[in-house]
Amino acid sequence: MKKRVTIKDIASKLNISPTAVSRALNDHSDISESLKKRVQETARDMGYTRNVIAKRLVTNNSNTIGCFMLGRQDIQEETFGFHLIGGIIDEANRNNYDILLFTTSSSTEQGKDYIEMCLERRVEGAIFMGLRLDDPYLDNISQAPFPTVIFDTELPGTNVYCVTSDNRTGIRRAMEYLWNLGHERIAFIAGHAQAQVTKIRFDAYREFMEGKHAFLEGLIFSGDYTRQSGYRAAQEILVSKLKPSAVLVSSDLMALGAIQAFKDAGLHVPSEMSIIGIDNILACEYIEPQLTTIAQNPFKMGEQAVKTIISCLEHRKQPRRLALEMELIVRGSCGPNPYSHTQRTLALP
């Protein structure tokens, strides 16, 4: 078996101390750039690879980030969660961190809270997706002793950060688009009340409609971010006395269910009903008509969560809340209001 190349071997080759080699490989500022380059080239030529396990034993760091997928979300390729995980893993790998994935709907199943689970596994940071406002361990997360990032939910706490999307701006763009198509009676399908982002999206919708003096409680319908709930909400819209001509839906999965309900009832999308979703999952492009949506960037959100944790571990100050830009992607599920006598000049995003 070929002998493993060590730092001492590189030091002997260059006639310098092993300490100098170690500091050069770890990019310390007290080592000149020319020496760093010589050490790195020699290490590469000799086939040196870092002994990650040994380094972790010396530093007592696990280089592991815990990732909680709560609610047993579906992470098939078409879903938002799949791309979040992809961004998390990609950024972790770039920084020589491992990801420990917890897929429990509630830590009560283990008889312990999330933070206790993390401490047992010696993780250095934690990421939460799908966290509900009625979770019994919110206070424990707020008191986390290590950097913790939550998607779409802000909690108090010295070490707690939020990575989300700019939902208010994204929804306003979608509402302006529908309004400019002549739609004034626009229904809204909300997600479940235990997601903080549900309220943010509803407030943005309400703010827009009130600004147009067009807000009506009877245009609000409820779902739970599943395709089935979107189908049920659309059935309610079909028998609504207010007869909306367009629907803004809080997730693409619910929008797909709504489109199916409209089709089953013989209603044509978009000539008789326009619809916009949120997320931009893969399935948006493979239905008929293709779904217009407010796109998030889950891969970038996942990357940013890991960057935030690593920056905190390196004692670099980070914003408590980071909201990434959303993009309105216009496809085939929206059209002019057939009942409107006036169509405004379109202001596409």
Tag the structure with descriptive keywords:
six-stranded parallel beta sheet; Rossmann fold; 12 helices; 349 residues; single chain; alpha/beta; 3 domains; six-stranded mixed beta sheet; 434 Repressor (Amino-terminal Domain); 39% helix; 12 strands
List the topology elements.
Elements: H1 7-14, H2 18-25, H3 33-46, H4 52-59, E1 64-69, H5 80-94, E2 98-102, H6 114-121, E3 125-129, H7 138-142, E4 148-151, E5 160-165, H8 167-180, E6 186-190, H9 196-211, E7 220-222, H10 227-238, E8 246-249, H11 252-264, E9 274-279, E10 292-295, H12 298-313, E11 321-324, E12 327-329
Parallel strand pairs: 1-2, 1-3, 3-4, 4-5, 5-11, 6-7, 6-8, 8-9, 9-10
Antiparallel strand pairs: 10-12
Question: Can you tell me about this structure?
Answer:
With about 350 residues, the protein is of the alpha/beta class. It has three domains: about 5-50, 434 Repressor (Amino-terminal Domain); about 65-165 and about 300-325, Rossmann fold (3-Layer(aba) Sandwich), CATH 3.40.50; about 165-295, Rossmann fold (3-Layer(aba) Sandwich). It contains twelve helices and twelve strands. It has helices spanning about 5-15, 20-25, 35-45, 50-60, 80-95, 115-120, 140, 165-180, 195-210, 225-240, 250-265, 300-315; strands spanning about 65-70, 100, 125-130, 150, 160-165, 185-190, 220, 245-250, 275-280, 290-295, 320-325, 325-330. The chain has a six-stranded parallel sheet with strand order 2-1-3-4-5-11, covered by helices on one side. It has a six-stranded mixed sheet with strand order 7-6-8-9-10-12, with helices on both faces.
